[in-house]
Amino acid sequence: MNLNKKLFAKVITAAALLGTLASPASATTFITDINGSYAKDAIQELVDKGIINGRGDGRFDPTGHIQRQDFAIILAKSLGLDVNNAPAAATFSDVPQGHYSFAAVEAAVQAGLIHGYGNHQFGNGDSLSRQDMAVIFTRALGVDVSGKGSILTFTDKDDISSYAKDAVAAAVELGLIQGNTDGSFSPLQSADRQSVALVASKFIRNIEEQRHSQQPPTTPPDGNTPPSPNESSASITPETKTPTTGSSNNGSSGGSGSGSGGSGSERDTTAPIVNILSETPVFIGSSLIATSNETGYLYLIPRGYPSSGRAELEVLVAEGLAKKVQVTTANTPTPIETDQLEAGIYNVFAVDRAGNLSRASSDIELKRPLSLTLAPGASFVLNPAYVYDESIVTIVDDSMIEDNDPYTDRNINSFFQVQREEEALSLQYNPQEGRFHVLEEGAKVGYILISSESELIEAQETERGVQILLKAGADEATTASLKLTLFENEAEVSSTILPVILDAAPPTVTDSVYSDGVITITASEPLVWYDSFEINISHVPVNSSGSSYDLMPFEHFTPSIHNGNVVIILKDEAFRYYHPLQPGDQFEITLYGIGDYARNMIGDEVLIVEIP
């Protein structure tokens, strides 16, 4: 394909400038939302060269539309156009001085690459169509596109504007652009950001190929003509660029373009070897220990995520899905932090200073450790009136709690909860070991030990559970506590202190109310009932002058304990028997066998509850 001679000099000069863009001085920027893009490699390449930018926060928005003024900036950077000598007066009224794309648009105009819509309108803010992208890129290449339109075979070729037909055909022939899978081209469809990046990458490669194919012989500094192929060239050393230490060495070394990477030195292409020293599973929050046989970096990556190159690993790190640590000494145990990672299967990769990527390590499982959470306000109440072997209190599991004495049998689950992530795990007492096993999906994953933190309280393992024994001398002034220690994989992962309160005072009723057929009685501390509990209720009509009333049959109401309160629900029979209940009516209630967890009973005084 012939080049337009007028533009050829510009193209060759621009290609020479691309060498400076290939190795940006700043650190590589990794884009986090291009993993699913067909143009991922091209996008990252142009970002690395400083030709395109993301939208901020590591995002590129690959499927977003490219606007004409942003395309002008990409074109100016790709060609290395002079953006420092913009004219005093703006060519287009919609791209005035001070606009962020002003210098790039004017540079493209001066290079003869952009013409605008006419009437001094550039189309600022308009999306760039696919056919216009082909026109501008082929114009920038200086390609003679005359007559190329006749070779178009797209099913919608007739929809391509007459001014763009030849350029589209030339762009396809050059491999810059291609049609859709259904055989169409969609000329008026807006070009998205990923397609522009792909075409721009191919465009730059095309320029570089043209530069090399058209480059004239070089005259040595001494003015002599270079030796012919038959003459000795031992004294002539081609100029090369020595690669910077620690560069990723992605195959573009600058210099002569031979790919040697430096003057006589061979590129390191040997992948490092990674070894895992930690045993699986590793608990999140602790360190995973690994080694690499070369200096560079270690990456802890969730299995199944893209990991074929360092750029993909960096994206995962930027997204918070992976961890990275520098290896400063080869074959030295290096800790990789695991905090803030999700639970799952991971692999470790090593990347050496030359950018070579190791194979994935063996699988490592990251798990969140078990957690031990004390129930809000939880305390363990004992009555100092019951010393040592009288009414011994035993901490038991769910299987032992039904219909038992609420003082002597305490459910371990009422004091705290063991969790993994958000899932509560079950506890089961093991009499052979004298400890509570933590079960996850039916399998033991840990255990809890209960011990006393006071000389006047003893924790003793038995067949049913752990007995808590009060010793002589204990009274309400005694300060005591129980320690609960959680183990996983035979290692302590958590512990908490459960306060022990010695209580010999009976609870007092603080409130008793009626509402919609329900009577609620609240006391100064949570209430429970014991085997001998009894509730007597009498109805006192508002206009009654008598002093003795019939007791309400037990079948007319349903008593329960809810959240430490006595709740009495009147059944339909009660309303039929006492019809009509009306404001001012009262219920006289007496409680027996109901008290606190220390077995201190409520007094037998009569409670008066009035219907509002």
Describe the structure in your own words:
- It contains nine helices and 28 strands.
- By secondary structure, it is an alpha+beta fold.
- The chain has four domains: 5-214, no CATH class; 274-367, Immunoglobulin-like, CATH 2.60.40.2840; 371-502, no CATH class; 509-610, Immunoglobulin-like (Sandwich).
- A hairpin with a 2-residue loop joins β25 and β26.
- α2 (40-48) crosses α7 and α3 (68-79) packs across α4.
- The protein starts with a helix and ends with a strand.
- This is SLH domain-containing protein.
- Residues 26-89, 90-150, 151-214 form the SLH domain.
Number of helices: 9
What characteristic shape results from the CA principal axes?
elongated
Regions with pLDDT < 50 over 5+ consecutive residues? Answer: 2-27, 216-265
Average pLDDT metric: 81
- Summing up helix and strand content along with how strands pair, one would put the structural category as alpha+beta
Tell me the strand order in the biggest sheet: 10-21-20-17-16-15
* Structure summary, number of beta strands: 28
Q: What is the percent of helical residues?
A: 10-25%
Bin the strand percentage.
Answer: 25-35%
Oligomer: single chain
Q: What is the first-to-last residue Cα distance?
A: 99 Å
How would a textbook summarize the main sheet? 6 strands, mixed
Tally of discrete structural domains: 4
Radius of gyration: 41 Å
InterPro entries: Cell_Envelope_Struct_Comp, SLH_dom
Biased composition (Pro residues): 217-229
Region (Disordered): 208-269
Protein name: SLH domain-containing protein
